[in-house]
């Protein structure tokens, strides 16, 4: 059977497989990835890529339950329910990123699978790291049918920092259509990225084949454009392509005439000579004289996320590969604003202002957040699927969804959860147009926040940057291409923001460290410095989009001072509990004789130095700070414990000089009082249910904040205040900024600030409208900033 299949594939390949002339093309993301120069993987990363893949499948189901499928030897298969137990389910759920199993199912409860039944009579003790380490009859050895496919129900709680995706995928037959690309027609289009128009070609064996356009509809075009990262489709000028086809046919049908005895040039020679002189921009896309049509009919509905999910009619092996009455299918796509070359066109395209993505490392991925009543909230992942995710992706200017992520895979949000059981059909212009349920706090928690990974156009940005000299495929000295020259980057002013852009451009996740001295990395092939003065906002897609010097100017131009990065697939994300600040605020007049330790740590205003110590008092604005880590990696101080500073007065180590800034601002944004707090002790005060504490300061313990935990600084400890002794009565804005110097990398710095409206009458103080910096709409934030208005006095 296997031999006959191989024979059919070989015949198919000989009939249709034809390698096209090398040209720059827009491809699906998997093709783009092959173009990226990747360093040799480390042993640890190599073992990670070879790890057994596990997924949940079937319908109907929630994100934490389903039929178990294993990817082994290039093929997905199931597990038989014979001898299945809760111990087996526990092992599988942990492999999927859940903390444990709550049950298991038999008799194909989630539907019958297809293909192999990989394992039978599986016996786990419950402690194995992978199902492959459990006892069984061996791979592929089973006497079961798919009526006996096993399933699991996992506890709806994620393992903190779990890296692998918890994905509900399309379940399409990828063997039918592996990759899709657009091959542009004219030479000028080949040089411009992204490629938005061209002949649709599908990867077939070691070449590319075309699709016959007979019966082709705009719905098919929509699916192709979505796969390639474009939100909208455009009509194609078919007459232009028909003229090209006709011209190509005329060239092919010209008679072959040899050179005459008199030496006169024949008609063929003249034609060749003329074609060499013709403009390359007008060359035909049918350069190889003949198309090979793999697919003769496509009937998409427009809601599919992949061409392979559409009904397709393939060419039969024993028939000719012509396209009677048609030609090769051509599509034209409309790029989103981030990828638009033409600035005039950019103004016409609008993306949603009430939907956004947060917490993602790469462009086009993140936690889905929606705006309601001027406040941002999240979406619960119940029934979250690729159709709903695609609606979000397209309204934000990306293509269709590559993955619909569940279980807060892009970190947990804060604040309200607005939507549950979203059921988009796939053609809606906004997620707000889709049916959904309003929810109560009992229905969902933030550990169920939905996320997306969208298809984005191939821009080739990773081809102009590389990291070298490091010990893995995630760290090294930064080198960029300027013109035709590769070289290093000056590290003067090099910060986490610039490093974030580098890691994003390379597709390596977040920046963990911005390195300013790279002498300890291999420098045998160090190039000259080609870029300096780099200053990024942190949101750019490429380092070349950041500000930088026109000519290189670097005080420390030696190779050991070139810029470097260490990237990571995950990062922490700190957020302050704003309601708690509002609830705990009060004023205390504290005697000076009780503030010696605070003065030593510079926690009082400058006028305190002139006070008549130890007599008198200072007026302190006190409140509690509860700082949550809602990211996907633990928050740990940049400095190792060997460099922590011991403070005898308070009897503990400071792992960070400045952990938070506390400021009181007037209507003009000027500071009227300020405070700062060193990391007295970063530790896990408490955690979500099911998450264990890892960090404790006692006995010179390790400092940090675990994912799913929080560090509480109570209102009654030293330096947990702003000294407002010199502040006059009035209306102010109180601001707290965590990790203000970006000393430790986070997935999102926009939520590090918290603001409150503040009213002080000289005796009492009130806070209201306390919120995280990015929690309100732009309009609401403008209204907030206008308060307290021009008159700063209490009336």
Query: Which secondary-structure class do the elements indicate?
Result: alpha+beta
Count of helical regions: 14
Q: Give the termini distance in whole angstroms.
A: 90 Å
Strand tally: 41
Oligomeric state, counting identical vs distinct chains? single chain
**Runs with pLDDT <50, length 5+?**
1-25, 27-49, 165-172, 257-289, 789-795
Description:
- This protein has 795 residues and is an alpha+beta fold.
- It is 16% helix and 26% strand.
- Strands 1, 9, 10, 11, 12, 13, 14 and 15 form an eight-stranded mixed beta sheet that branches.
- β23 and β24 (485-489) form a beta hairpin.
- Residues 1-25, 27-49, 165-172, 257-289 and 789-795 have low confidence and may be disordered.
Task: Please provide a brief summary of the model.
The chain is built from 14 helices and 41 strands.
């Amino acid at each position: 059977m296997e031999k006959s299949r191989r024979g059919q594939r070989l015949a198919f390949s000989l009939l249709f497989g034809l390698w096209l002339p090398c040209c720059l093309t827009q491809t699906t993301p998997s093709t783009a990835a092959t173009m990226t120069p990747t360093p040799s993987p480390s042993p640890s990363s190599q073992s990670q890529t070879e790890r057994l893949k596990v997924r949940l499948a079937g319908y109907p189901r929630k994100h934490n339950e389903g039929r178990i499928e294993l990817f082994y030897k290039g093929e997905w298969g199931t597990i038989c329910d014979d001898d299945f137990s809760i111990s087996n389910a526990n092992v599988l759920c942990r492999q999927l990123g859940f903390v444990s199993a709550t049950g298991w199912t038999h008799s194909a409860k989630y539907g019958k699978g297809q293909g192999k039944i990989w394992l039978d009579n599986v016996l786990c003790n419950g402690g194995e790291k992978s199902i492959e380490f459990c006892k069984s009859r061996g791979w592929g050895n089973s006497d079961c049918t798919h009526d006996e496919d096993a399933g699991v129900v996992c506890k709806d709680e994620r393992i903190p920092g779990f890296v692998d995706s918890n994905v509900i995928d399309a379940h399409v037959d990828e063997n039918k259509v592996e990759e899709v690309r657009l091959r542009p027609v004219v030479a000028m289009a080949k040089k411009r990225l992204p490629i938005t128009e061209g002949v649709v070609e599908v990867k077939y064996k070691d070449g590319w084949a075309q699709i016959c356009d007979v019966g082709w509809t705009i719905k098919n075009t929509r699916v192709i454009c979505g796969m390639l990262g474009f939100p909208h489709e455009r009509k194609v000028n078919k007459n232009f392509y028909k003229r090209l086809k006709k011209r190509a046919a005329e060239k092919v049908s010209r008679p072959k005439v040899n050179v005459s005895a008199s030496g006169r040039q024949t008609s063929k020679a003249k034609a060749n000579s003329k074609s060499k002189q013709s403009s390359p921009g007008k060359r035909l896309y049918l350069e190889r004289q003949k198309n090979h049509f793999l697919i003769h009919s496509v009937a998409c509905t427009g809601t599919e996320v992949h061409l392979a999910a559409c009904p397709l009619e393939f060419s039969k092996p024993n028939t000719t590969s012509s396209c009677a009455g048609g030609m090769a299918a051509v599509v034209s796509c409309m790029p989103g604003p981030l990828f638009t070359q033409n600035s005039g066109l950019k103004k016409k395209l609008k993306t949603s202002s009430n939907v956004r993505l947060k917490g993602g490392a790469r462009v086009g991925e993140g936690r889905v957040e929606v705006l309601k009543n001027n406040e941002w909230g999240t979406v619960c992942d119940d029934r979250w699927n690729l159709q709903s995710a695609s609606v979000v992706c397209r309204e934000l200017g990306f293509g269709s969804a590559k993955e619909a992520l569940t279980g807060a895979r892009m970190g947990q949000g804060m604040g309200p959860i607005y939507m549950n059981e979203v059921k988009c059909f796939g053609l809606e212009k906004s997620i707000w147009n889709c049916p959904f349920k309003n929810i109560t706090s009992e229905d969902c928690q933030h550990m169920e926040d939905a996320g997306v990974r969208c298809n984005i156009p191939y821009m080739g940005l990773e081809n102009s940057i590389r990291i070298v000299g490091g010990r893995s495929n995630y760290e090294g000295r930064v080198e960029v291409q300027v013109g035709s020259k590769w070289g290093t980057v000056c590290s003067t002013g090099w910060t986490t923001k610039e490093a974030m852009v580098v890691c994003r451009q390379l597709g390596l996740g977040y920046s963990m460290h911005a390195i300013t001295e790279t002498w300890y990395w291999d420098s045998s092939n160090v190039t000259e410095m080609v870029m300096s003065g780099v200053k990024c906002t942190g949101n750019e897609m490429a380092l070349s989009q950041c500000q930088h010097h026109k000519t290189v100017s670097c005080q420390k131009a030696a190779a050991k001072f070139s810029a470097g990065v260490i990237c990571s697939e995950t990062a922490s994300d700190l957020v302050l509990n704003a309601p708690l600040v509002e609830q705990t605020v009060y004023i205390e007049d504290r005697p000076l004789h009780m503030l010696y330790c605070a003065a030593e740590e510079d926690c009082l205003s400058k006028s305190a130095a002139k006070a008549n110590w130890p007599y008198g008092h200072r007026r302190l604005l006190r409140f509690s700070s509860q700082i949550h880590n809602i990211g996907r990696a633990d928050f740990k101080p940049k400095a190792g414990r060997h460099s922590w500073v011991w403070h005898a007065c308070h009897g503990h180590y400071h792992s960070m000089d400045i952990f938070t800034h506390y400021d009181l601002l007037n209507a003009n944004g000027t500071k009227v009082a300020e405070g700062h707090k060193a990391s007295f002790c970063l530790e896990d005060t408490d955690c979500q249910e099911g998450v264990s504490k890892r960090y404790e300061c006692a006995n010179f313990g390790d400092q940090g904040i675990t994912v799913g935990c929080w560090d509480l600084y109570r209102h009654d400890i030293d330096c947990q205040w702003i000294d407002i002794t010199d502040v006059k009565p009035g209306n102010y804005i109180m601001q707290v900024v965590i990790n203000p110097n970006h000393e430790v990398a986070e997935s999102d710095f926009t939520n590090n600030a918290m603001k409150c409206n503040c009213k002080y009458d000289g005796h009492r103080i009130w806070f209201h409208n306390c919120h995280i910096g990015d929690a309100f709409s732009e309009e609401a934030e403008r209204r907030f900033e206008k308060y307290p208005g021009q008159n700063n006095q209490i009336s």
